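Notes to self, allantoinase:
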Amino acid sequence: MELGDLLRPLLRGWTIPLLLFTVGYTLVYLPQIEKELDEGCSLLPDTHFVLYSKRVVTTQGIGPYSVEVEGERIVSVTKRSEAPKSLPGKPRVLDYGNAVIMPGLIDTHVHLNEPGRVEWEGFLTGTMAAAAGGITAVVDMPLNSRPTITTKEHLENKIKASKGKIFIDVGFWGGLVPEYAHNATVLEDLLDAGALGLKSFMCPSGINDFPATTAKDIQASLPVLAKYGRPILVHQEVVDPPADPAHLMQGEPVSNARSYQRYLNSRPISWETEAVRQLMEVAKDTRSGGVADGAHVHVVHLSDATNTLSIIKEAKAEGSSVTVETCAHYLAFAAEDIPEGATQYKCAPPIRDSRNRELLWKALLDGEIDMITSDHSPSTIDLKLLEEGDFLKAWGGISGIQFSLPATWTHGSARGMSIEQMSNWWSAAPAKLANLPRKGTLEFGKDADIVVWDPEASFVIDGHYPIYFKNKVTAYMGHKYSGKVITTFVRGRQVFEEGLHSPKINILLV
Ligand SMILES: NC(=O)N[C@H]1NC(=O)NC1=O
Ligand SMILES: [Zn+2]
Ligand SMILES: [Zn+2]
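result:
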């Protein structure tokens, strides 16, 4: 007798129950499993919990508060001198004592380079590093992925490439290049597909399929951006006076290319000042009643705190809709301290002298610079030419997303910066730039995007330090910082806690 013959009479009576079970399983149980999988995206099993510490950064000031999280949102922020008790039937209380509970950082200037250059970085490693650094959302730049994100199709392709690979919220800037700058349909399609705004370069970007735009090209995009109430972010250098050919990573070998001063001379302050002068001319269109009223111009990675900043201040005072960021590395490092051949410090515009660094800090503290980003722009290690130490030919870009918080805190607290100021530059202001109204502060109804960190804990980034971004060459290596991230929550999911990451969460801001 075959096995089937044996089972047949047994199954006969079971046919209907089996059928019912299958249908029930598919309709009721499978969705439940999906939900549990999503819940498994957190290191914490709870979906309703309370965070407490003596130093919570709220819109009412910093102090002892409890922050209640339910699902993805903050459902209450309450002042109280003691941690609430964990009682049966009540949400679990996580008491972080004297640590700081703060809105997660939002880094609006990050190059994740996927698809197309995953050997440089990627969604997985880049967002793991961000989560470990207390960053709960990044906005990815349209370069250096391949293709660059200049059309709707390219953006859709990038969104697809991110599926199942991200630990935090990720949004996207679209790219503005001369080919489409005057084509409103292409730009509108890109914005409709979810781009949070546009980004362009006023000088060669180092990536061939992302050519430079002129101020006129940028001006042409502004009425489209006005219609959507979105910003254009601009890399503010123009090759003026005409090039020292060395800066373009081509040309003949140049003597003393290992000297940082040599590199600094190749990209003078005048490049930055002239670009911003041209840009602030076209930004006049954003003024109230102007042809691009509703659009916004954002200057990325300000490195010069002298003439360039003065022009930006003037444009703001005259009513143009303008903001400016600087990067953690301009606030942490100074040209005089960069060793010969140390190309891990190469970026553009370059890190300038310590006098300028102090002026950048003063401008932040005086409210003249609006926010800070990482401009995390990695490449493979070989492109950094660490052995030759050739500053003129090495890839220009600093990897450091994981260290933004400790670097800002260490250098800022030494200059009188408060935790609330830091939170404003790293969370509230970038949320506004990227138009993310549910993010940036700890308030009722907002996304539960939270970092808990210890300002007093210090550490050295050495060869043993766990670095999560892909290519572990960084300007921050060898330096000592205070400000250790304890844990990071993204929309109520605990995605990082002291060396451990949750499974990926896969949420996009588009
Ligand atoms: N292409 C690219 O990422 N360039 C960036 N690197 C850098 O240091 N400045 C930049 O604009
Ligand atoms: Zn740039
Ligand atoms: Zn950049």
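- The chain has two domains: 3-39, 102-501.
- Residues 109, 111, 141, 375, 377 surround zinc ion (ligand 3) (CB under 6 Å).
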